[in-house]
Sequence to fold (400 residues):
Amino acid sequence: MAKRKVRLKKKSKLVVLIILLILVLGFGAYYQVSYFSKVDKKIEDTPIKKEVKKEVKKEPKEYSASLFMVGDALIHYGVYNDAKQADGSYDFKPMLEYIKPISSKYDLVYYNQETILGGASLGYSSYPRFNSPQEVGDAFLDAGFNMVSLATNHTMDKGEQGVINSVNYWKTKKDKVVYSGQWISQEEREQETAQVYEKNGIKYAFLSYTTWTNGLETPVGKEYLNNVYSPEKAAADVAKVKDKADVIIVAMHWGTEYSLGVNTNQDEIANYLSSLGVQIIIGAHPHVVEPVEYLNNGKTFVIYSLGNFISDQGVTERLIGLMMELTIKKKVDVDDSVTISIESPKAQLIYTKDKKDFKVIPFSKLDNSILPNYMTLYEKYKGVVNTFYPELTWGLTHEV
Fold:
């Protein structure tokens, strides 16, 4: 009997433990289900934060580049003889000391190299068959000039070798300057007339032509030596760059020597180039200043002649030249359409003090001891330049 009671007690305790275990497990399961149900409900009730990317509003973009221009570097004997140093070298930099503080502040800086830079090996010479020291180019580069026109009526003055020497000189300066108008192979001509350059986000092309050769024709098959103008040639060249460039700049050697007016040929060529899409035309050859104007409803700005920049022609009107500045503006709209405008033309006259210690001097630095009656001359030539565009502003942005 005693053993049976002991077994029953043990069995009862076991049953109680099992019941307690079942209760604990059941309560735990209930609590767990209840807890996670609440958590799930909380998750369901919590709003999902979606990451919304803000759309960036596209804004129009504007770009700007300044262009500065002067006329002919016509290097007569008097000019290069004055630049000759005791050791036989040449230094033209002092002749530009009043210009450098102005020219060096612009983005694009242009001049016309009227005479061939054939170098010492061909012998230096003056009118009528010029050959000039290459140190002329060094002086202009030092003053910030980075665009040079090479197609002129004096290109062939020293024959094919003169052009070869000239082009080889400019090739060594390609990191500083864009040149056009002379080449030493057709392949080079094709490559370089199709070239587009960039400044301040504005893409530009630069072409140079001459309508005059002084009867010194290029050898047959080597017409690339001097870029003689024809409507067909200009159209083909412009077509190569029109879709790539924002602005096309053309230097034209044209017009009537010593004429203050515009001739029919200049007028026809200017309007034709404008119709092709050329926005800026820079004229040379007359050796005196001529008018400026907008063509084609303001799409093209033409300077018919900047006159001589530096020379020793002796006659006062040929020692007076023109400096010009323009602002090229490019606007890219929100739909990526591009608008180009040629704005804010400004002008100033220059005078070459000649005979000894040649110096190019802005009219703002002149007095009657340097050029007698200079203000009377200023008004005269200002009137010539303003003929077609009386709204022209006089005085340059960076003039000092």
